[in-house]
Design a protein that fits this description.
Structural class: alpha+beta
Number of domains: 1
Distance between the termini: 52 Å
Strand order of the largest sheet: 4-1-3-2-5
Length: about 130
C-alpha cells in the first residue's frame, strides 16, 4: 500500500530496497560522515550484525547492478522487499539506525562518496600508528 508523504505514521514498505554490506569500521565512519553532511539526514536505515563485523545500508532497487565499491557488496532482495518494522528483517541482525530515526534508503551516490571518504580516513589513521 502506498501512502502519502504527509502521513508519517504510514510509511510504504521498502519493497524496492537492496542492501550494501560493508565492514563495520568503514560503515560507522560513513554513518558519521553522512550525519554530519549538509543535509544531516542523508543516511537511511542501517543494520548491524550480532557480531558487529558488518553494517548493511538499505539502498534503492537497481543499486546492485552498478555497485562497484571495493570491500563492499550490494545484495538484491529479489522482490522480497524489506519492511521498516522495529524487528530487524534479517536474522542475526539489529538496527543501528531503525525505522522512525532515518529515511528508508540511502542514496547510493551519496553512500559511495561517504564510504570512499571513510576509507581514506581509516587509511590515514592507520598510517599514523
Amino acid at each position: 500500500m502506498m501512502t502519502s508523504r504527509s502521513d508519517d505514521r504510514l510509511e510504504p514498505p521498502c519493497t524496492d530496497c537492496e542492501v550494501v554490506t560493508v565492514p563495520a569500521r568503514q560503515g560507522l565512519e560513513a554513518v558519521d560522515i553522512l550525519r554530519r553532511g549538509a543535509a544531516g539526514d542523508a543516511v537511511g536505515l542501517v543494520l548491524h550484525d550480532d557480531g558487529g563485523a558488518t553494517l548493511g545500508f538499505l539502498v534503492p532497487a537497481g543499486t546492485a547492478a552498478a555497485w562497484d565499491v571495493p570491500g563492499s557488496t550490494c545484495t538484491e532482495t529479489d522482490g522480497r522487499g524489506l519492511r521498516p518494522t522495529p524487528e530487524p528483517p534479517v536474522a542475526g541482525s539489529d538496527w543501528l539506525l531503525p525505522p522512525g530515526e532515518a529515511d528508508l534508503a540511502t542514496d547510493p551516490a551519496v553512500l559511495r562518496e561517504a564510504l570512499g571518504e571513510a576509507q581514506r580516513m581509516i587509511e590515514a589513521a592507520d598510517s599514523c600508528s
